Amino acid sequence: MYRSRLFGVLAVLVVLLSLGAVVGAQDDMVEIEYWQYNFGARVDAMNMLIEQFEAENPGIKVVHNSDIPYADFRTELAASAPAGVGPDVVTLFYGWIPAFVDAGYLVPLPEDSFSEAFILETFSPMVANSKFEDSYWAIPTAVRSLALFWNKDIFEAAGLDPEVPPRTLDELVEMAIATTQYDGDMQDILSITQMGHAPALAAQDHHWFREVLIRQYGGAPYSDDGRTVTYNSEEGCAAFSWLAAFETEHVTGSNDILDGATNAFVNGESAIHVDGSFRVGTIARNNPDLNYGVTELPVGPNGERHTFGSYWTHGITRRANDDPARLEAAVKFLQFITTPAAGTLWVNNVGELPAQAEAAADEMILADPILGAFSAGLAYSHATFFVDESAQRQVLIDAFDNIRMGGMDPCDALDEAAAAEQELIDNFWADRE
Amino acid sequence: MKLTLAKKKVVWAYIFLAIPIVFFAYIRVYPALFAFQMSLHDYNPLAAEQPYVGFENYEKVFEELGKRKSQTKSAFQNTINYVLLGVPIQLCLALAIALMLNEIRFMSTIYRIMFFLPFVTSTIAIAWVFRMLYQPRFGLFNVILQLVSLPQQPFLRSTQQALPSVLALVIWQGMGFAIIIFLAGLKQIPRTYYEAAEVDGASRWHTFRYITLPLLNPSIVYLLVLQTISFLRMFAPVIAMTEQGRGGPLDATVTVVLQTYREAFQSFNMGYASSLTVVLFALILGVTIIQLSVTSRRIN
């Protein structure tokens, strides 16, 4: 009897002491969690920024979770939220923001630290595109744009000047035809051994079509408020037909052969490719000897330049908002990782351009033979307002598959896509109103 | 109350059994029941609140099924195609192979292992190997076609061929299991029946038709139910074999479970996804009851 009471007292003491230790630790140290998906160069760059941030802010500890692969990232976030765990600051693709805002997962950036005037003045114009329902919900360290990659060795072997990439859409077609090689029927995709240009809607070409080609044909992809699909126009159809013709008419390539359009270019089996600055790192890692150049996207029939801009962007979660100390730390962290200095560190380690216009227009970057083309594009880039990026992308992938596999007319395929995408957009807004 | 030694043993057995039962209830039964509950809510895992919407999600399922074309409709159509094509082909092939394996004596163990091996290999690994075999130009199947001067086939890259291409892998992989069950069933049939048939001068076909097949009925029923359920639940081969795991091209291979996954974890419509699983559950339950009542009638 006496012994068991002694044990009881001891147990209570142990519990009290350990609680005290936890509370004591929280008093002088705020711990916040930061999550991004696993992409080697970005993880390293963020670790450097966190180290600098913690040195400047000794009271804050940032736990960096970067173990989740891209394919599982959204799933893990969805699994963590009901469990009451997860990030205080999270990096999301900008096209996902509306869905996360819709769920109440993100809170607006505090007006006093990230005012609209400050964002408009200092960040790349595409960042302003993602204002949603009168608030900014996320802010990036870096931005990317699309440019044209060409393989100089293939150009030379085909008798083209290796230093002169296509400057217009017409030249792109000519050069793609000139650089394609077959080992049989020239009308059969499966007999291609070297691709001139392969349209790949699942990669970046749905962006190229949406924000670049349509505009160059004189049309517009969406209404100004982004709520109405307008790409199923005469201009849109002309642009889509132009893109589809690489596979259906000119037979210069397909995303279905040679391990896909992107890998084919990286492996030196494709002459011309449209991609983002992030591909530079892939090439450096997988095929450092590839002799290639990067130039601005070619102009279209109306002579205008356009490109698609996109970014991974950092937001503050509902979880951080629940605790004033963590919220304060999260805001401080967000400010630290979006400075021009952070952008410069990022471009040097990741290859993505600084989101702050001042740092992106740095002379070193503009003069860089690879980064220069992407940097020049920032001035005329557009970021699509997506309500569900993957579903909207799928709509155009399906439209393209309908043409090349089902033999559908490009205009009809685009009409079907527009109807499907309009439904996605309408459903999103119907739920919010 | 004093327990006898025997009773004590029983009590302890129940206590030990309780551990896996509690575990099973927590990780299988509870989530299944939770799915029913989720299907009645506009359940977004990222949101703080999950509003109750009654049967709205189910209405949406049937609305999608009624459309001329929708992902949900494709998912159900494909799943039914997988079952209607997959189960009969797999069972017929498995039975034929089992009958042959039952005859041979020389190296019979090696043969049995070879047929059973795919079943114990990881589906994802096999799916990726098949994905390579189906490649245009360099894939083994197209190389063979080329060697015998036949035209190249797109396989997974065609809306017509993609579903049979995926199905071929699933049939092949699951066949080992069916063969083992059939072999066990064949061993149960007393040899005396065959000897009697031989004395009566029955042909091989008659022996098979009137002795083997009826006496294999329990194995057939068992496999029919089990394989139908497994085809209805198909997921891994499709996600591994199609571009970005989307069940393409043009939803040609998507299944109900894959569609559920996409809705739940890519579009965060967990309520709608749950209602899809409940509909699938009802479908499986219905099919199983019908199969059991039709095929398990006693055969003399």
In short:
By secondary structure, chain A is an alpha/beta fold.
Structural write-up:
- Chain A is of the alpha/beta class and 433 residues long.
- Chain A folds into 2 domains: 31-144 and 310-380, 3-Layer(aba) Sandwich (D-Maltodextrin-Binding Protein, domain 2), CATH 3.40.190; 146-309 and 384-432, Periplasmic binding protein-like II (D-Maltodextrin-Binding Protein, domain 2), CATH 3.40.190.10.
- Chain A contains 20 helices and 14 strands.
- Chain A has helices at residues 2-28, 40-56, 70-80, 97-102, 116-122, 125-129, 152-157, 169-179, 201-216, 234-248, 261-266, 278-286, 318-321, 324-336, 340-349, 357-360, 363-367, 371-377, 389-404, 410-432; strands at residues 30-35, 60-65, 89-93, 106-107, 138-140, 142-151, 181-182, 192-197, 270-276, 292-295, 307-310, 312-317, 353-354, 381-382.
- In chain A, strands 6, 7, 8, 9, 10, 11, 13 and 14 form an 8-stranded mixed sheet that branches. In chain A, strands 1, 2, 3, 4, 5 and 12 form a 6-stranded mixed sheet that branches.
- In chain A, α2 runs antiparallel to α15 (340-349), α9 (201-216) crosses α10 and α19 (389-404) packs antiparallel against α20 (410-432).
- Mean pLDDT of chain A is 88; it is low at 20-25.
- Chain B is mainly alpha-helical and 300 residues long.
- Chain B is 72% helix and 0% strand.
- Chain B has 13 helices and no strands.
- Chain B has helices at 5-38, 56-66, 71-103, 108-120, 123-133, 140-147, 162-188, 191-199, 204-215, 217-232, 236-241, 256-266, 270-295.
- In chain B, α7 runs antiparallel to α10, α10 (217-232) packs antiparallel against α13 (270-295) and α12 runs antiparallel to α13 (270-295).
- The longest helix of chain B is centred in the N-terminal third of the chain and has 34 residues, at 5-38.
- The model of chain B has no long low-confidence stretch (mean pLDDT 90).
